[in-house]
Amino acid sequence: MAKELTTDQRLDKIDYNLEKIVTIVNGHDNQLKKIVTIVDGHDNQLKKIIKIVDGHDNQLKKIIKIVDGHDNQLNKITTTVVKGFERIDKTLGTKADTKDLQRIFNLLDKISKQQEIDNDERLVMGYQLDRLDRWVHEVADKIGHKLTV
Known about the structure:
Blueprint: H1 7-93, H2 98-143
């Protein structure tokens, strides 16, 4: 039969086992401290990354604001261009047909003929004025009157 241990022996054995447990726990404690150190380092790196990302976020907000301004300007330009094309479409929709063009050409011919007649009449009037001027000078010379301008 197995020999029974005395109380002191049992306590010594418990102390011995407790010392082993303390050694193991201390080892685990050291490992946990290393892990905490590593995690703290990663935490600092994450904080730096967050600062960088926040800076980029502010820059992106500024860029978005600028792009929105350009977008508004492009919308205004697009609206203006579309209205212009609508006016052109309306104008082209009411284009002249051949009858209208013939009427316009006939009017232009009449205006051109009238202009020719007016030019001829002015030329004749110029000759008449020259003749009248010459007669007036001849009459003035015959009566002995000197004409001045």
